[in-house]
Write a structure and sequence with these properties.
This protein has helices spanning 56-69, 84-96, 109-117, 135-138, 141-149, 180-189, 203-216, 229-239, 249-258, 268-277, 311-323, 327-330, 355-364, 367-375, 384-399, and strands at residues 45-51, 74-81, 104-107, 155-163, 165-168, 194-195, 245-246, 263-266, 285-288, 296-304, 378-379, 403-404. Helices cover 39% and strands 14% of the residues. It contains 15 helices and twelve strands. The chain starts with 44 loop residues before the first strand and ends with a strand. α2 runs parallel beside α3. With 405 residues, it is an alpha/beta fold. The strands form three sheets. Strands 1, 2, 3, 4, 10 and 11 form a six-stranded mixed sheet that branches. It has a four-stranded mixed sheet with strand order 6-8-5-9.
Length: 405
């Protein structure tokens, strides 16, 4: 397994609603970009990309295809890596210095939101809507809801219904829990054998955190402070039977692989990808955290363009963003299950994916995933400030004293 393929998620602070939750751009920041499309360059440029969300594994093929199809526009694509928490400061420093080095940023909701708060990103929609005709109609309905959270400051390029799932060793857990209450009962009789990572640092952790209010029937699943009485009671009881909370999902995968734990929180992507890579044995199984009235929690990644790029680089960046929404390019996001399913637009099937992806999904995918996706609703993420509040409350009242790096 390579580090780039199987990474602990950075603190994932999700976006606000399009109406109110997304941070307000700074009032003294530059004005919005003009709606007139800049002209494409007359000679090829080097396209510089910054990846803070592990998105290179989903997009490298897209960049390769674009370069091959447009040698008159792009001579080279360079992808650099950084972490989501350092993104905003890095881009802001470049903008203040008058030299923006990156044309495109691959980010999760956290980096997108942090940049919007400081007006770091170009607003692609509606300012450059002519490059993205029928964008909302082309997105899958649930992906479109997640894209709307960005309020036009990013183009969503990959989407997953995510989870929450339970991943378990069937040799140790012959009958997995079928509800949160059954999970509590199992953990009570098997102390130390269930594990999930700190939600602020883990995709499966935050997916379970946001999904439980729907499964438990809390008063307001969108209000973690005043509407999650059942969820917080559940977590406090479960905490009694959890040894510690890793600071990344990869630790939980290693623990179930080596037998330290028998069951962990998971998602579709975190189930498939580690088995493809051989980090987790193919004998593990998954189940929904609740078999009745289940709700998926959506997750997504975006491409954003920093304010301050030259007109020629902006023109190529916009052209690439439109290019990567084509079905052939979207099929690349099936990858090896990393963000399963992956495509964000309608009409993309596994049969359109590269042969390697088709073979891996055939071997390591689970037929029930597509059935579940078709049967259960997918909810959008919590607003930016509310998910922050949920993370803080979990740290303070549930597991903060047992976080283990």
């Amino acid at each position: 397994m390579t580090t780039g393929r199987f990474w602990p998620l950075a603190v994932a602070v999700l976006l606000a609603s399009a109406c109110a939750g997304l941070p307000t751009p700074s009032s003294n920041a530059p004005t919005a970009q003009p709606s007139k499309l800049p002209s494409l360059p007359t000679s090829p440029i080097e396209l510089n990309v910054l990846d803070v969300a592990g998105g290179q594994v989903l997009t490298q093929g897209m960049f390769d295809d674009y370069k091959a199809a447009n040698p008159n526009l792009v001579s080279k694509v360079t992808i650099s890596k950084a972490t989501a928490p350092e993104l905003a400061a890095k881009i802001k420093a470049q903008q203040q210095g008058g030299s923006v080095q990156y044309d495109v940023v691959l980010t999760g909701n956290d980096g997108l939101a942090a940049g919007v708060a400081q007006n770091l990103w170009v607003r692609e929609m509606p300012n450059y809507s002519q490059k993205f005709p029928n964008l909302e109609q082309n997105y899958l309905p649930a992906a479109n809801k997640m894209w709307k959270l960005a309020n036009g400051y990013g183009i969503l390029y990959t989407y997953t219904q995510s989870g929450p799932l339970l991943e378990y060793n069937p040799a140790k857990v012959p009958t997995p829990p079928a509800s949160p209450q059954e999970l509590l009962d199992w953990a009570r009789t098997h102390p130390g054998r269930f594990e999930y990572a700190r939600p602020a640092n883990s995709g499966p952790g935050r997916t379970m955190l946001q999904g439980l209010p729907y499964l438990l029937g809390d008063r307001d699943p969108k209000d973690p402070v005043n509407g999650w009485d059942k969820t917080w009671a559940f977590y406090k009881e479960l905490d009694k039977y959890v040894d510690y909370y890793p600071t990344g999902t990869s630790t939980t995968m290693k623990d179930i692989a080596n037998g330290t734990r028998d069951m962990i929180a998971s998602t579709m992507g975190w189930d498939i990808n580690p088995r493809v890579l051989g980090t987790v044995p193919n004998t593990v199984k998954t189940t929904l955290l609740q078999q009745k009235d289940f709700h998926f929690m959506s997750d997504s990644q975006y491409m954003v363009i920093p304010n301050g790029v030259s007109d020629e680089h902006l023109a190529v960046a916009l052209d690439f963003l439109a290019f990567m929404l084509k079905p052939k390019e979207q099929a690349i996001t099936f990858d090896d299950g990393y963000f399963y399913p992956g495509p964000a637009v309608r009409g993309v099937t596994i049969g359109q994916a590269p042969a390697k992806s088709q073979a891996e999904i055939q071997q390591f995918g689970r037929p029930e995933y597509n059935d579940w996706i078709s049967r259960y609703p997918a909810e959008t993420a919590l607003e930016y400030d509310k998910l922050n509040a949920a993370f803080e409350k979990w740290d303070k009242e549930v597991g903060g004293s047992k976080i283990h790096a």
